[in-house]
């Protein structure tokens, strides 16, 4: 076990040496410095020093100045100020300034030993708390996935296990549950984590463009192909490719995808060159792929190639224990993005969150909280600040057709309207408007400029 390191700083050589000798005999590793400058150089080179005993009165940099500069270099450093009789008031000021305690000269070894042991116990507790918090963070927030529910803990454990292999993974779950986050987590925990992570939404492209995006194309292979282009599989070499909405690809693309999974090779569109790749394939879908196989819309051999390790992400309504954690995570996120300081949700809002059906899952929760943070004018998000479409649909039964609020239209337009409304109410007083909106003047000026808001006389 590594010995605790103690730095002794005193301009009197006899005190330095006698104290160092005693500490070494007591099982500690001591380092000495004759002045503040030498002590700072030692701290720069030895960030793992636990405790510093510093004389209060020294030529050059005194004990108070040394403590301040040392703590800037090593915030975890515990400092004991050593003072002569009659300088106790100064030592007390040092404690107020961040010193752990003080010692009066001449001091007895027993007093030093008690102080050092108390400091080391405190430091160990702090380290254990930090380690515990990190461990809890891994359980509750795994690679941006958040959840303490039993169902999400099972997902986290499966991610850890499957990440160590090269097996293909099929992630299943409703829209908005976080399928890409799971894919990124598998990649981040795998031996491929230093390689690229490349994603593609297969449902967003027609078949002709999807083939080109996946496998690339040669110059002149089709109208508009004015140059050779590499595909996603080439860019993902030695890494991971994530194909979202895999259930929507055409039979022809299914054949080519099966080949690259089985043979680790493909041809660009319009090309004859065989291109070899080493890529892990992760796919996702919100469809029932097995049913599509039965209906003849999806190749059975490809399904089994993709479904080596299935991961199912439960919808938000099946893991309500996670809602408060997710809500406060998004609250903190959008507080930061919008320069706000909203502390929490009203009890009515949290009650609503727990009862609502969440057809749009985590994505819908995030959008609603961003909306609420933008519009809130006090230290809590209240029901009145939630979208009217949501407030008027409090059903916790069957899913309702409630559109997810989009950032590009409704949210920005609503924010713009709210800013104009408050500006008019305050007579275009920026100070009062910013205060009413719960944002800074600089943020208000930026939003007025971004939204091209102008005063109408």
From the helix content, strand content and strand pairing, which structural class follows? alpha/beta
Helix content: 40-55%
- Count of the separate structural domains: 3
- Please tally the helical runs, counting DSSP H or I stretches of 4 or more residues: 19
Q: Under the CATH scheme, which architecture of the largest domain would be assigned?
A: 3-Layer(aba) Sandwich
Q: Measured on Cα atoms, how large is the radius of gyration?
A: 31 Å
Supply the CATH superfamily name of the largest domain: P-loop containing nucleotide triphosphate hydrolases
First CA to last CA: what distance? 76 Å
- How is the main sheet built? 5 strands, parallel
Q: Remind me, CATH topology of the largest domain?
A: Rossmann fold
The number of strands is 16
Strand content: 5-15%
Oligomer class: single chain
Strand order of the largest sheet: 2-1-3-4-5
What overall geometry do the principal axes of the alpha carbons give?
A: extended
**Nearest-integer average pLDDT:** 86
Q: Unreliable runs, pLDDT <50, ≥5 residues? A: 394-409
**CATH hierarchy, class of the largest domain:** Alpha Beta
């Amino acid at each position: 076990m590594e010995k605790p390191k103690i730095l002794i700083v005193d301009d009197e050589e006899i005190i330095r040496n006698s104290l160092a000798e005693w500490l070494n005999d007591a099982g500690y590793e001591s380092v000495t410095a004759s002045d503040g400058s030498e002590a700072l150089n030692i701290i720069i080179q030895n960030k793992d020093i636990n405790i510093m005993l510093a004389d209060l009165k020294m030529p050059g940099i005194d004990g108070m100045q040394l403590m301040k500069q040392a703590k800037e270099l090593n915030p975890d450093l515990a400092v004991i100020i050593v003072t002569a009789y009659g300088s106790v008031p100064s030592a007390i000021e040092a404690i107020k300034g961040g010193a752990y305690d003080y010692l009066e000269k001449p001091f007895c070894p027993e007093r030093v030993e008690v102080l050092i042991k108390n400091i080391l116990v405190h430091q160990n507790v702090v380290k254990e708390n930090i380690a515990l918090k990190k461990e809890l963070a891994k359980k509750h927030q795994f690679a941006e996935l958040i959840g303490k529910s039993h169902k999400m803990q099972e997902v986290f454990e499966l991610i850890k296990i499957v990440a160590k292999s090269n097996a293909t993974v099929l992630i299943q779950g409703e829209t908005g549950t976080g399928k890409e986050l799971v894919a990124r987590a598998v990649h981040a925990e795998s031996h491929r984590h230093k390689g690229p992570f490349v994603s593609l939404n297969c449902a967003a492209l027609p078949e002709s463009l999807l083939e080109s995006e996946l496998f690339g194309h040669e110059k002149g292979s089709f109208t508009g192909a004015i140059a050779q282009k590499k595909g996603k599989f080439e860019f993902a070499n030695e890494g991971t490719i994530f194909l979202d909405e895999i259930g929507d690809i055409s039979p022809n693309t299914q054949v080519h995808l099966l080949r690259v999974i089985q043979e680790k090779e493909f041809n660009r569109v319009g090309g004859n060159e065989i291109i070899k790749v080493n890529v892990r394939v992760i796919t996702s879908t919100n469809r029932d792929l097995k049913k599509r196989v039965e209906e003849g819309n999806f190749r059975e051999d490809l399904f089994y190639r993709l479904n080596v390790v299935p991961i199912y992400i439960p919808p938000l309504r099946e893991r309500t224990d996670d809602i408060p954690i997710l809500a406060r995570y998004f609250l903190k996120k959008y507080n930061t993005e919008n320069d706000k300081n909203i502390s929490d949700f009203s009890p009515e809002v949290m009650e609503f969150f727990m009862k609502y059906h969440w057809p749009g899952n985590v994505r819908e929760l995030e959008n609603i909280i961003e909306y609420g943070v933008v519009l809130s004018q006090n230290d809590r998000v209240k029901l009145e600040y939630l979208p009217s479409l949501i407030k008027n649909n409090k059903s916790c039964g069957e899913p309702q057709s409630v559109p997810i609020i989009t950032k590009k239209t409704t949210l920005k337009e609503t924010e713009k309207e709210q800013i104009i409304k408050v500006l008019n109410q305050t007579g275009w007083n920026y100070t009062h408007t910013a205060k009413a909106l719960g944002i800074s003047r600089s943020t208000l000026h930026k939003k007025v400029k971004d939204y091209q808001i102008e005063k109408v006389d």
